[in-house]
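User: Okay, second chain of the day. Same drill as before: sequence in, structure tokens out.
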Amino acid sequence: MKPSLQLFALPGLPMVRAGDDLPPLLEDAMTRAGLMPEPGDVLAVAQKIVSKAEGRSIALASVQPSQAARDLAEQTGKDARLVELILSESQYVVRARPNLIIVKHRLGFVMANAGIDQSNIGADGHALLLPRDPDGSAAALSARLGLPVVITDSFGRAWRRGTVGVAIGAAGLPALRDLRGQPDLFGRTLMVSITGFADEIAAAAGLVMGQGAEGQPAVLLRGLSWSGAVNPAAELLRPAQEDLFQ
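Assistant: Same drill. Structure tokens below.
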């Protein structure tokens, strides 16, 4: 059998709200689709529904902006209350210009707006923050569902235009695979090959999830195989001494 990969959007997921128990919702959706977990399956789950279930939606009316937030809001043209949330979720601001704030998130991600989003959250005047511990969230889902889980988000990239799905949380698989020391097709030893396996999964799932009104926040990937020790998505973060873009 030739290698192949199948992707199945899970149908009929309801709008997730704070306090919802995600595993039964995901299990019911897999059952409706006739998908029983098999070896090599991975479930990709959009960050947005994880954050919603964990109660990470904040009413902007409840936010009191600091002077630093007001100053940065004036510079960027953003709502000062949103800027306050961005700063509260960040280690520091990397770059700022009109309508753009790039930060180093408290979890180590370099990203726009600290990953805070106001689209597709179902509540006007609210903003949705990233999960407090995406790897922990993935581990909890994986333990209850009995299969590896990748939590995905959409990131821009310093060296290319356009956003792409990346893993911000992972459990049950090697998020980062170090292939150094293995032979290539001609027996030459690989010297620098380290692959972002969880990011590849997230990007593939993004083709089915979409980023607009598709309403497909969970995708089952079938047909994957891997080797190597399990490690979390935090392993994907580049150490500061290797970062050439800051």
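The chain has a mean pLDDT of 91.

User: Thanks, on to the next one.
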